[in-house]
Specification:
245 residues; alpha+beta; five-stranded mixed sheet; 13% strand
């Protein structure tokens, strides 16, 4: 069986595809370890827990973001580094900028509440708390591809986690931070939801944050952008004009 790996030469910095014969027919991660140990010890990739918990082995398999340790290896698979990030070497990408966006979103506890926390309160933030920061959502995001200031799916999912956290008595700074380059910039394409290994739904989380923002008095920018560039069919007095003039 063969595995194809997209690599980058150190001197020329030009990507190329290299093929390796693989004996094991298990996970992509096992195949990468075999390449490293038996074929080319200069080959570089990340891995940690090997059980789908740490998220460090995220990459793309046949064009889709996956965790290498949880993806079954098939003959002739193409393995590539994550999109939308600077390649350090082979399958290792620089994640510093994405972590800075997480910091900029101020998704942390601002002012602790003294109220009692129930099991229902914990369940409300349970799903979003399962994010393992694997960066798959960033890699698949078309908005982040063209706007590196976009806070991105996992920052916004984390924003909802703290906005819903009953331990937080002041969620205003969180909602304020996600108005620009945040929830209104998302196209709601759903790519982030499709590739999340933890089955988190960032698309729905962003829609939820939009609703919370409007309830707090923020402008619904999705409606403003929706009305630009075509005739809505309403006259200047608020009446409907079927002829559009």
């Amino acid at each position: 069986m063969k595995i194809r790996i997209k690599r980058e030469k150190n001197k020329e910095k030009k990507p190329y595809i290299e093929e390796f014969e693989i004996d094991k027919e298990e996970t992509i991660l096992n195949a990468l370890i075999e390449v490293k140990e038996k074929k080319d010890n200069s080959f570089a990739f990340r891995c940690g827990c090997k059980t789908g918990v740490c998220g460090s082995c995220a990459l793309r398999v046949n064009g889709t973001e996956r965790l290498a340790c949880k993806t079954h290896f098939k003959d002739n698979d193409l393995v590539e580094p994550l999109n939308n990030a600077k390649i350090i070497k082979d399958l290792i990408v620089d994640l510093e900028h994405e972590y800075k966006l997480l910091e900029n979103s101020e998704t942390f506890l601002h002012k602790a509440s003294s109220g009692q926390i129930t099991k229902s309160d914990e369940k409300l933030i349970d799903t979003q708390s399962n994010c393992i920061l694997c960066q798959s959502c960033f890699s698949s995001c078309p908005v982040y591809e063209v706007n590196k200031d976009f806070l991105g799916p996992y920052s916004l999912t984390r924003a909802l986690r703290y906005a819903n956290d009953k331990k937080e008595s002041n969620s205003a700074p969180i909602l304020e931070k996600i108005q620009n380059n945040g929830i209104w910039d998302c196209t709601l394409c759903g790519n982030c939801t499709l590739v999340c290994p933890q089955f988190i739904d960032p698309k729905s989380d962003i829609m939820n944050l939009r609703m919370k923002s409007v309830q707090k008095g923020y402008e619904d920018k999705s409606i403003a952008s929706f009305n630009i560039g075509f005739d809505t069919g309403f006259d200047s007095f608020g009446g409907f004009n079927p002829n559009g003039f």
